[in-house]
Structure formats: C-alpha cells, structure tokens
Write a structure and sequence with these properties.
single chain; alpha/beta; Arc Repressor Mutant, subunit A; 3-stranded parallel β-sheet; 3-stranded antiparallel β-sheet; 18 helices; elongated; binds glutamic acid; Glutamate--tRNA ligase; EC 6.1.1.17; ATP-binding
Length: 446
C-alpha cells in the first residue's frame, strides 16, 4: 500500500523553519515512497485563522517546491466532526463537564498541593441528569471530554521507537469547548481516518496527544496511522527558536535572498545521521530520506550553516540564472557575464551583488584614506600601463609602484583596493581592474 501523509498547519501565521521542517519531512517521506502529500488547513479556530495566512502558507510551500497532491480545510468539515461527536456520545465516551476555568485551576492546585498529578477528576462523568439540568439552568454550558481508557496506550514510533503513554496520567482531553467549538484533537483524527492517512508525522510536542488520539482512532473504528514524532529545532546557541521565529519565516528568508534548496538541504539533514551538504533537488533529498536516520536529540538550526549553503548555491548559478534578479537591482540591467563571474565567488546571496553594481557600473564615494595613502593614490595613475587594461595590467602596474614607492603587501594593495572599489575585501584585483576599465580607474585615482 502506498503511503499518504498530511501537513496540517493552522493559518494563524506564516511558515517558519520549525514547521517547514515538519512539512519537508512529510513530503520527503511521501515522495521517496511514491506516496501522497496532503495539505490540511487546521482552521477550526475561526477567530485566529485568516484567509491571508492560508494563502501565505500555500505561497510559502509552493516557493519551497513542496507541492501538495490534495488540500482541504477543517472549517469545511464540521458536519463530519458532528457525526463523530454523536458516535462518541452514544458510546458513552464523550461526557459533559461544567467546571469553569477558575474551578479547574483550583482543582489542579489542590491536587498538586496534595502531591498528586493534576489530572482531571472526572467529576463530570458522575453527574446525574438532574445535576446537569440544574447546572444548565444556572446558565452553565457544558464542554465535552473524551473518556480515556486509563490504560497504557502503546505504539512503535518510527522515530522514537516503542512508546507508552499511560492514559491514567493525563486528563481526559476536552474535545469541544463550552461555546461549541472544536479543539484540534478530534477533527484531526476524523480527518486522518477519512483521508486514509497512513502516517502521522509531526513534532515531538504532540507525543502525549498521540496517546489520546490513538484511543480516539480506536473509538471511532478507524485505522490508526503509523506515528513518527521528530525532535524539535533549537538554535545554534542550544536555545529554543520560538522568540526568533519571525525572522526565520519562509517569507523573510526568501525576501533576504535565501534559496529554497538551501533551506531544504539544511532542514532535511540537521538532526540526522547524514552530513549537511548542498543537494541539487528535493527529489535527491527524498531518495535519501529515512526515519531511521533521524536522531532523538534536538536538531540544531544554524543560520551560518544556512548562509554557507546559500553561498555555495550562489557560486554555482550562471549569469542566465540570475539575470532577471540582477535586473531588479539598481544598475542591475548593466550587469553582464563577466561581472557575475567575478562577483559571484564572494556572495552569500544573489542580492548581495547590489554592493558591486555601482562599483562597476556607477559611481562610488571617494575613499577616506590616510594622508600618505591618499598621496600614494594620487601618484599611482602615472604608472598605469598604457592601452587597454587586461588581467595582466595589475601585476605590471603594482610592480612598477612597488619599485617606485618601496610599498609592498597590504600597504601597496589596500589603498588601491579602497580607492578603486571602496571595499576592503572583494574579488581578485587584476580582474577588478580589467572589468572597471581605464576610464573608471583613472577617475577613481584622480
Ligand atoms: N495543526 C496542528 C499543529 O500545527 C497539527 C498537528 C498534527 O500534525 O497533527 O500543531
């Protein structure tokens, strides 16, 4: 049987590297097996979900190349959730509770103060019809909890190995709020059953959820998918990424000029037994994917590693590849093959070429040099070999300047580099000189 997975973001924000990794692992697993990748929009929280975020998430996935075979929204499926609710109620597995948030909080505190785990005491389960009628007459509306078995729920996780969640140690989960709205837990199971999802692949923050959800799968008579819970991402400093996720959104990374395949190459390999290296395509990453390679330790996301991969891609791009993107930068329409060949070696991303465009095709500010360096530059033009500048001109010229002034090494090259490019670093000066051409060189020395 071919596999079918789903990625289920809530449209309450754009995608960031954490959820992209979940999407990517789902996609790589499915495509590596010739299976299907479904995009499910978890928008049961009608207040926080927006169409803009839904569209944004689709845009982010498309940009990353993570195309979906099918997509649907939970908000279109309330009738199905209502049916499942009716079945659970009829089977005595969904029961009404009337506590307010404050009352629940008090119960939790009392349990803790007595050294007991703060597990819901199932008071709702023991209410008589009369008691319920009385509470409702007081204006209370019920919320609904699923009755867990109280036994260990076991499964063999594809990443974590054998798992056992003792359902006696967790509270019966609330599936429906007092205002009638669904929490994520039940709709997710109903959807996974109806869409015939074979593997649920998500972050390890859902492990406890899985204990409850597996019991709901069984209660609804559905086939329980295989489960895989991946460790969460941490930053290079070992800290959680939650505070920095805004700057690590796909939208922001794309705007910053990071290439999609750099993101995928990194996210597919961190926290696995494979080395992190640049891959040519998602297909290659899919062919290399296996749950067995994913370790149990958190995966370290290092932006420096991302930018190193991005620099590697940038070096490998041809002028044809980047022509349109360069054209969007000031003076970028003047860029040519020789320019790209020269500057691409030192760029972390295509847009960084913006620094070099005015240097080669426009004007730069006069370099702010020490007095003796300024005097050296003012005299340097006289030694520039006659005729058109070629890649050999630099060595002839600096040779002459060296014997004339006694300057050498950095003292010789740095003032020239600064005067001609305004930058302390950059491509090889013999090539810079040739690309600048005689007129610009003389102007900047003068
Ligand atoms: N919407 C849920 C989340 O983003 C989906 C979890 C799941 O994959 O089941 O956490």
């Amino acid at each position: 049987m071919s596999c079918k997975v789903r990625f289920a973001p809530s449209p309450t924000g754009r995608l960031h590297v954490g959820n992209v990794r979940t999407a990517l692992i789902n996609w790589l697993f499915a495509k590596g097996q010739g299976g299907q990748f479904v995009l499910r929009i978890d928008d049961t929280d009608l207040e926080r979900s927006t169409k803009e975020y839904e569209d944004g998430i689709k845009q982010d996935l498309t940009w990353l190349g993570l195309e979906w075979d099918d997509t649907f929204k939970q908000s279109e499926r309330f009738a199905e959730y209502d049916k499942a609710t009716a079945k659970l109620k009829a089977d005595g597995l969904l029961y009404a509770c009337y506590e307010t948030a404050e009352e629940l909080d008090r119960k939790r505190k009392i349990a803790l103060s007595r050294g007991r785990p703060p597990v819901y005491d199932r008071a709702g389960l023991n209410l008589t019809d009369d008691e319920k009628a009385k509470l409702e007459a007081e204006g209370r509306k019920p919320h609904w909890r699923f009755k867990l078995s109280g036994k260990p729920c076991e499964w063999v996780d594809l990443v974590r190995g054998p798992q056992a969640i003792d359902t006696a140690s967790i509270s019966d989960p609330v599936l429906i709020r007092a205002d009638g709205s669904y929490l994520y837990t039940l709709p997710s199971v109903v959807d996974d059953i109806d869409a015939e999802i074979t593997h649920v692949v998500r972050g390890e923050d859902h492990v406890t959820n899985s204990g409850a959800q597996i019991e709901i799968f069984r209660a609804l008579g559905g086939k329980t998918p295989q489960m895989a819970h991946t460790p969460l991402l941490i930053g290079a400093d070992g800290q959680g990424l939650s505070k920095r996720l805004g700057s690590l959104s796909v939208q922001q990374l794309a705007a910053d000029g990071v290439e999609a395949i750099a993101i995928a190459s990194l996210l597919a390999k961190i926290g696995t037994s494979d080395p992190v290296e640049l891959k040519d395509s998602l297909q290659t990453l899919a062919s290399e994917f296996s749950f067995e390679k994913i370790g149990r330790a958190p995966a370290r996301f290092d932006e420096k590693e991302l930018m190193a991969l991005n620099a590697e891609i940038t070096r490998g791009l041809s002028f044809e590849d980047v022509k349109d993107r360069l054209a969007a930068l000031p003076l970028g329409d003047k860029a040519n093959d020789a320019f790209w060949a020269l500057v691409s070696e030192n760029l972390q991303k295509v847009d960084d070429a913006a620094i070099w465009l005015p240097i080669f095709f426009g004007d730069i500010d006069k370099a702010d040099l020490e007095a003796d360096d300024a005097a050296f530059i003012a005299g340097a033009a006289a030694y520039l070999p006659e005729g058109e500048i070629s890649e050999d001109t630099w060595s002839v010229w600096t040779g002459a300047l060296k014997s004339e002034t006694g300057r050498k090494g950095k003292g010789l090259f740095m003032p020239l580099r600064l005067a001609l490019t305004g930058q302390a670093h950059g491509p090889q000066m013999n090539q810079v000189l040739a690309l600048l051409g005689r007129e610009k060189v003389l102007k900047r020395l003068g």
